[in-house]
Amino acid sequence: MRAERRNWSNRLFDFGLVALSVAVALGLTLLLTPWLYPTVTPLFFVVVMISAWLGGWETGLLATVLSTLAVSYFFIEPLYSLQLVNIGTVVRLSLFAIAAGLVSCLSQSQRMALERLRANYKTHIPQVRS
Question: How many whole angstroms separate alpha carbon 117 and alpha carbon 78?
Fold first, then answer.
């Protein structure tokens, strides 16, 4: 029971950290918009990559969703609305979401491969006798 609670609190902490990271990326992007425009997604990609690398595919997926919503709400006309009025906008947001989702999947694949490698290494190493 205690391990489950600690695991749940760790996941909750990870999700909170993702939300904070997306908020920081949003703030920096809003500050740097004159220099980043028309490409406003680089900092959000960084957040997705780091979230997926540190927390797994769940946190990467959460960062993808939050980043997509933030980009749509703050940077796409009409501003401060989630309404998408043209197909070009839908395509750009979809490509961002797909690329960010693939980053999360690739990070999870790498994580699983490393776990298998560690497990195989532990089972195939001969024990050294003193």
Answer: 49
